[in-house]
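Format is sequence with structure; example below:
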Amino acid sequence: MQEPQRRIRALYGESTITVYQAYPPEIGVPAARDGRFPPAWKRDRMTWIKPSFLWMMYRCGWGEKAGQETVLAVEVTRDGFEWALRHACLSGYVRGVHGDRATWQRQLKRAPARVQWDPERDLRLRALPYRSLQLGLTGEAARRYADEWTVAVRDVTPLARAIRAHVSDGDLDAAAGLLPPERPYPAPPAAEFGCPCPGRAG
């Protein structure tokens, strides 16, 4: 079956969803140790979360890019994740979705979350013909992510390195066997567009 052009794929359970981020060790190590972000984590800055493990690997270079050496799996509440989706705006202007560019800019300025769709990646980190979600959190959303929504934080840097080692050896089956079992996430309908869902505010 053909993949839809935009879909959230994630590891999730009844009440939580796992997203990925990569940080320098001074942020990532204490976060994984304590299960919460340390004081050095800036709650007043935008932070981007990725439900797709392989997109995170593309972004951080399997945890080898400077400042992204510690790869974290952050388990957050589905209620919080969906709150962010409902209050998000697309990161770029799209004709037909927004009334006009000025309207989009106003929405973007006041939205606590941003939706961005980027090409999903395969095990060799090559772009695939369909897209996965990045969700940017700022202001209220960033604070709630750190202080309310986060349930657990795990260091998955060793997992990233193990998968990359199999890919480098050409053993894609072994690499695929270690991937988190992501599946389509039942997102609110308007999440595809980064627009508020009628009747689902709050």
